[in-house]
Amino acid sequence: MITKEEYLDIYEVVGAAMEVYNTLGYGMAEPIYQEALAKEMQLQGMGAEREKQLRLYYTDMLLEKTYYADFFYKGIVIELKAVDKIISNHRAQLFNYMRITRQLEGVLLNFGERSLRAERYIFDEDVNRFILLTQENYKRHIFPD
After folding, report:
1. pTM assigned to the model
2. 86 Cβ contact list (under 8 Å, min separation 6)
3. Residue 124, pLDDT score
4. Using one digit for the tens of pLDDT, what is the confidence trace for 102-125?
5. Neighbour tally for 138: CB within 10 Å
6. Are 95 and 106 spatial neighbours (Cβ–Cβ below 8 Å)?
7. Which residues are within 8 A (CB) of 14 and not within 5 positions of it... i.e. 6 or more apart?
8. Is 134 exposed, middle or buried (0-12, 13-18, 19+ CB in 10 A)?
């Protein structure tokens, strides 16, 4: 479960991505969207880290190998794509980043479709699985006030 504040942070990420998509449309290269999203997050005062180095763990040991997430914002791993369609490998990349860095929230953004695709995920440690937050289920995964 996540707090309402954490959910609103995810919502904020998607809102910034929507602003970029509404301005640029679809069909550009991923680095263009990445740079534009960095500028939009800066304009909104979000303080996101671009190409954030992620530290990896094996059991309780920190590994020397690192990955780089497209963005990291308030504990949210953000992965960008500009492809015709999201496939399972794209989700697996985000899930791996989340799992090995021990982050519980992630957003997969695809700017390559006719409308922005924003998949919001949380990792439920109790059942050891990733959950896609949808309009129908997100309230079940937010701690009650």
Report:
1. 0.91
2. 108, 110, 117, 119
3. 87
4. 889 999 999 999 999 999 999 988
5. 17
6. yes
7. 107, 109, 118, 120
8. exposed
C-alpha to C-alpha distances, 101 to 53, 54, 57, 96, 106, nearest whole angstrom? 10, 6, 7, 8, 11
Helix (H, G, I), strand (E, B) or coil at 3: coil
Q: Which residue in 99, 95, 103 sits closest to 132, CA to CA? A: 95
Q: Pairing mode, if any, of strands 105-110 and 76-81?
A: parallel
The two three-digit tokens of residue 30, written as one number: 């991923």
* Segment holding 94, helix H or strand E: helix 88-101
Question: Predicted confidence band at 24 (pLDDT cuts at 50, 70, 90)?
Answer: very high
Strand ordering across the sheet containing 117-124: 49-58, 61-73, 76-81, 105-110, 117-124, 129-133
With vertex at residue 18, the alpha carbon angle to CA 100 and CA 102, rounded to the nearest 5 degrees, is: 10
Other residues' Cβ atoms within 10 Å of the Cβ of residue 9: 18
